[in-house]
Amino acid sequence: MRIFSGIRPTGNIHIGNYLGAVKQWIELQEKNECVFCIVDLHAITTPYDPKELQKNILDAASIYLAAGVNPEKSIIFVQSEVKEHAELAWLLETITPMGELSRMTQYKEKSKQYKDYVNAGLFAYPVLMAADILLYRAKAVPVGKDQEQHVELARTIAKKFNQKFGQIFPEPETILPKTGAKIMSLTNPKKKMSKTDDPKSYISLFDSPEDITKKIMSAETDSGKEVVYNITKKPGISNLLIIYSLITGKTTQEIEKQFKGKGYGEFKKSLAKVLADYLEPFRRKQKELQTRDVYVKEMLSQGASRAKTIAETTMKEVRSKMGLS
Ligand code: AMP
Ligand code: TRP
Q1: Domain-by-domain residue ranges, the chain?
Q2: Which CA distances in Å does 11 have to 17, 247, 255?
Q3: Which of 181, 174, 175 is nearest to 243 (CA)?
Q4: CA dist 271 → 136, 189, 192 (Å)
């Protein structure tokens, strides 16, 4: 089965991105043909620094590699290097109803967050995402819960194209992780962890052990002192329990038992240690890759040329079906 997923190179990829998306990719690449994309054209729809973008792209690539994506098996590439993404997005925009786009939760949230940056690209963002997926005729898309609505729209667009111009695209399905689909902010457990928020609210994959400890120790918790999982009454502690569980492979019940009668402080100390140890190889690998820019760039350029071969074949068919040359 062919699988496609993408991540924005906006810096500070955090444990929510990792547990919600990247971790699944590693498992999926064993049995599937995977295409992983660093979506720089998506990243520029919200405020960004052009001077930082190339660095963020290389960071994202080294995160893929540090997390275990195997470039021998999977395709890893940068979206803007395969021009067909932008071309297909334009063509699909001509069959996407405005009404569908204005219903998108992410658009509503982002246009509230960046009131003076509400651009047409932000509005059309989900069409570009549909183009990403459909260009490779991917059958499945591993993402966190926040992207489910966008994949649904990609399905709607595929269906519409097939009906109007003839069958080309499979209708892609979302693959959600069983747990970890939505890791919440450390400073406000009612909000999802997001890299555009205050750094105190997330753990970046490259945070130092000191920073991890500081952030976990000051993470918002709930009244009471018992470490028990209860998402409505104790959203803060429950979020930390989920992170603990995903990192260690222990169930939340086992962790509750481990910390029975011990209070939040001890639990948090242990979580900070567990996280710092778990993320150690990421920090090490990132340091190592920072000195190997040439290797990372070469890998991305090979990825782009493999991606291009697939994209060109699809585009030939799309143009012909739409009556373009
Ligand atoms: P983004 O950083 O928005 O480009 O997201 C990259 C991937 O991480 C997408 O598949 C998202 O669904 C996923 N993701 C982002 N934030 C979270 C979160 N707080 N919890 C779980 N998954 C997330
Ligand atoms: N929109 C996704 C996000 O914000 C990133 C993305 C772009 C993506 N294109 C994609 C994810 C295609 C899956 C498939 O996280």
Answers
A1: 2-180+293-321, 206-287
A2: 12, 22, 32
A3: 181
A4: 40, 16, 19
- Spatial distance between the Cα atoms of 188 and 192, rounded to a whole number of angstroms: 8
d(CA 273, CA 279): 10
Q: How far apart are CA 255 and CA 270, in angstroms?
A: 11
**Residue of the CA atom closest to atom 7 of ligand 1:** 17
Assess whether pLDDT exceeds 90 at residue 296: yes
Is 110 one of the catalytic residues?
A: yes
What lies within 8 Å, CB to CB, of 144 at 6+ separation is 16, 17, 20, 21, 176, 177, 181, 182
Binding-site residues, ligand 1, Cβ < 6 A: 7-8, 16-17, 20-21, 143-144, 146-147, 181-183, 192-193, 195
Residue 233 CA to ligand 2 centre (angstroms): 32
Domain range 206-287, CATH class: mainly alpha
Catalytic residue among 110, 215, 234, 268: 110
Q: What is the pTM of this model?
A: 0.89
DSSP calls for 256-297:
HHHTTTTHHHHHHHHHHHHHHHHHHHHHHHHHHHHT-HHHHH
The domain 2-180+293-321 is classified under which CATH number: 3.40.50.620, 1.10.260.40, 3.40.50.10490, 3.30.360.10?
A: 3.40.50.620
Mean pLDDT, the chain, as a whole number? 95
pLDDT band at residue 20 using 50, 70 and 90 as cut-offs: confident
Contact (Cβ atoms closer than 8 angstroms) between residue 67 and residue 34: no
